[in-house]
């Protein structure tokens, strides 16, 4: 049995941990979100969702903890569970935004570089890439079976499942191109110098401004892989300043040829959007497949 919210609050803050205020928080596409204030004055953040798998928030909590242990700034995970009405939840410390520091983007670049350079041996069951459990990219199940090859991991655990999920959108010729692309990923990708813990969904909406003016990372879809994957997504939807990239490359220079691989990394995210939001993303997906597969 999973613990319900009031039981979690009582365990964490004592028998008088009543919710005195509950305000909706906007910005998420999938979950309900609330700012809670307890009788003792504690500020908390609650995410909840009905009819999700029992591990939906548990694996998000594991991802946040892994990033925090690797040196990233994240909200603190307090609890997760399920209420009697079937609504699952994740309880975190509340991040109250403030004015950004003048060196906000530089510090974010250095923080991400440090996370990418942290030791990952405890996360991949003795292999180089993957993660010790599957998780979710948004609401879509994401496979993380461990592998010693990044190229093979990206083929079998990222692109292949998403191409299967969206195959009804493609013409027979584009399905042929997609198969060719999968079979020839080694022609485009490189094995990284070292494995990195990835946020996995690092667009600007998953970077918050914290109470001290520093960046806080939220909503991960973690795995251990090539750090180029995270950097590529920061460029897909924009929102990251040049100072971020300069600081990152100062701390952890990217390998030559990254720009030629960028769109191929982002094909995974665009396939997710094609599945979730429909044909508006089909043009971008087929453009990338045709570019790489001919």
Word description of this protein:
Helix 3 packs parallel to helix 7, helix 5 packs across helix 9 and helix 6 packs across helix 8. Strands 1-2-3-5-4 form a 5-stranded antiparallel sheet, with helices on both faces. A two-stranded antiparallel ribbon has the order 6-7. It has 2 domains: 89 residues, Phosphorylase Kinase, domain 1; 190 residues, Aminoglycoside 3'-phosphotransferase, Chain: A, domain 2, CATH 3.90.1200.10. The protein is an alpha+beta fold and 294 residues long. The protein is built from 9 helices and 11 strands.
Q: What is the structure about, briefly put?
A:
With 294 residues, the protein is an alpha+beta fold. The chain contains nine helices and eleven strands. A five-stranded antiparallel beta sheet has the order 1-2-3-5-4, with helices on both faces.
Low-confidence stretches: none
Strand order of the largest sheet: 1-2-3-5-4
Main sheet record:
5 strands, antiparallel
Radius of gyration over alpha carbons? 20 Å
Give the topology.
Elements: H1 5-13, E1 19-24, E2 32-38, E3 43-50, H2 56-69, E4 77-82, E5 87-93, H3 104-117, E6 135-137, E7 140-142, H4 150-165, H5 172-183, E8 196-198, E9 207-209, E10 215-217, E11 223-225, H6 228-236, H7 242-251, H8 258-277, H9 282-293
Antiparallel strand pairs: 1-2, 2-3, 3-5, 4-5, 6-7, 8-11, 9-10
């Amino acid at each position: 049995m999973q613990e319900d919210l009031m039981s979690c609050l009582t365990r964490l803050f004592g028998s008088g941990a009543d919710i005195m205020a509950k305000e909706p928080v906007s910005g998420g596409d999938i979950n309900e979100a609330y700012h809670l204030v307890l009788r003792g004055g504690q500020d908390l953040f609650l995410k909840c969702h009905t009819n999700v798998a029992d591990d939906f928030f548990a694996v998000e909590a594991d991802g946040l903890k892994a990033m925090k242990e690797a040196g990233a700034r994240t909200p603190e995970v307090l609890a997760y569970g399920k209420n009697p009405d079937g609504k699952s939840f994740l309880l975190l410390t509340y991040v109250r935004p403030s004015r950004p520091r003048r060196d906000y983007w530089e510090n974010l670049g250095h923080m991400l570089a440090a996370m990418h350079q942290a030791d990952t041996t405890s996360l991949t069951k003795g292999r180089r890439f993957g993660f010790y459990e599957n998780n979710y990219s948004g609401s879509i199940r994401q496979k993380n079976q461990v592998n010693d090859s990044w190229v093979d991991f990206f083929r079998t655990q990222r692109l292949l499942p998403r191409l299967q999920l969206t195959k009804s959108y493609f013409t027979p010729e584009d399905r042929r191109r997609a198969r060719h692309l999968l079979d020839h990923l080694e022609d485009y990708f490189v094995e990284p110098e070292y494995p990195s813990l990835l946020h996995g969904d690092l667009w600007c909406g998953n970077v918050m401004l914290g109470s001290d003016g520093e960046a806080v990372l939220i909503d991960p879809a973690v795995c251990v892989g090539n750090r180029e994957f995270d950097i590529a997504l920061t460029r897909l939807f924009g929102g990251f300043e040049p100072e971020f990239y300069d600081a990152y490359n100062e701390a952890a220079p990217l390998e030559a040829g990254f720009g030629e691989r960028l769109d191929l990394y982002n094909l995974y995210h665009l396939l997710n959007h094609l599945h979730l939001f429909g044909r508006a993303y089909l043009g971008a997906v087929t453009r990338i497949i045709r570019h790489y597969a001919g």
